[in-house]
Design goal:
The protein is mainly β. Helices cover 9% and strands 34% of the residues. It has a 6-stranded mixed β-sheet. Strands 10, 12, 15 and 16 form a 4-stranded mixed β-sheet that branches. It starts with a strand and ends in a 10-residue tail after the last strand.
């Protein structure tokens, strides 16, 4: 699942707290959210059902949150979103947090800077956290039926810390999630098919 709708400001700008004690100094991976999500709620796109801040905090509408609960979708937790100004919770939006990073991305998945720039020198990699700036191909994941949750995140991440932009994993969802979102005509995301492979898990060896 690719969340296509983004907005700002990020939670960090609105008072959301993070533990940065274990953050990688090179790529910025490893921050841990320590407070509820505070946002400028009025800036969340009202025409979308799911969207993310530029800091990769994911929010869903009340309608979608209710559907996720009713369908007993596993692998996520839904938490209240609070107004940055008055610190009151909003009934219209919920933070969606993926509980665990369980999925290994494997070759022949390709990562790089741009479609014709594969970052052969590894300037945008920071192993074992970041495997590339962007994904350049279809996603292949480690096979064997190891994914039990409806929503999972990959162990490997893309992008890097640049201001408020942070590394993020890929989101892997079950057919149950895909069919639910399709039935509801959820706005703000799109889906691409994932393949299982017996390749060795990324990160790739250092060059």
């Amino acid at each position: 699942m690719i969340i296509t709708s983004a907005f700002e400001p990020a939670g960090e700008e609105c008072g959301t707290g993070y533990d940065l004690s274990k953050v990688c100094p090179k790529c910025g991976a490893g921050r841990i959210q320590t407070t509820p999500l505070f946002l400028s709620v009025g800036r969340i796109p009202k025409s979308k059902d799911i969207c993310r801040t530029i800091g990769e905090e994911i929010v869903v509408s009340q309608k979608l949150a209710d559907a996720i609960k009713k369908a007993a979708i596993t692998g996520v937790v839904l938490s209240p979103v609070f107004h940055a100004k008055n610190k009151k919770s909003t009934p219209d939006w919920f933070q969606l947090t993926i509980l665990a990073q369980l999925v290994n991305v494997v070759p022949p998945t390709r990562f790089g800077i741009a479609p014709f720039e594969e970052d052969e020198k590894g300037e945008c990699r920071c192993l074992p956290h970041i495997v590339g700036l962007n994904i350049l191909s279809q996603v292949y994941i480690e096979g064997g039926g190891k994914i039990s949750a409806d929503v999972s995140a990959t162990k490997q991440m893309v992008w890097k810390r640049m201001g408020l932009l942070v590394p993020s994993p890929l989101i892997i969802v079950s057919r149950k999630v895909y069919e639910l979102f399709t039935q509801l005509k959820v706005k703000g995301c799109k889906f691409e098919v994932v393949q299982e492979s017996n390749g060795h898990p990324l990160p790739l060896p250092r060059q």
